[in-house]
Amino acid sequence: MRLTVRVWRQATPTGAGRFETHSVEGLEPSMSVLELLDKMNHDIALEGGEPVVFESDCREGICGACGIVVNGRPHGPIKRTPACHQRLSSFADGSTVTIEPFRSGAYPVIGDLMVERAGLTEIMQAGGHVQVAAGTAPEADQDRITYSEAEEALDFAACIGCGACVAACPNGSANLFLGAKLAHLAKLPIPAAERGSRAAAMVEEADRIFGPCSLHGECAEVCPAGIPLVAVSWVNRERLRRGVLGRDS
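^ Fumarate reductase iron-sulfur subunit, sequence as received from the core. Prediction below:
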């Protein structure tokens, strides 16, 4: 299998970028997009060139580091699938594949396909944590929660923080990410004790870094974890709840 790859090259954050074209042969349909980049970089290195910079870690679809835009779509053509699990079988033999970094004002390019996504981390640092008193473990049934509530919380907790939602949003909003984090922690009894102050801090940080949400819905379409669009509603829900109650509980 052979593919022509148009890949974005940008040596420095402030430097001008450009597309560079490479013909990559000896591919298998079962290979992932990241393995395509591996093979391309191997060929570039053999020719004495500078390999393309890109991020990856687990390559198991759970870390979110592999975020790139493939043919105009964050991660790639297969819905709810991270780039590391996008297979080359999605592309016809001999076709052209365009690969570029996430595009957002909140994601400055570090180099080639690698962007700075510290804004998501700053949202979590603002309030995406739980304070608990260390010591003797409480009784297992002290804080009761139903099975359905636990499952709903875990569904929102599935967000891997890849940031594809921001790259897909016309406004560069992070509300799908933010809403998933707020909903996850609000639905569990111990984190819910800090629900109001958490919402105030995280929403303020998200508003500072990212754009407002206008409910286009592209975010949910590209989310590899399948976070539903209803997560966006949790941002205003928690914001209003904090404004009305003025406290945590």
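The chain has two domains: 3-111, 117-245.
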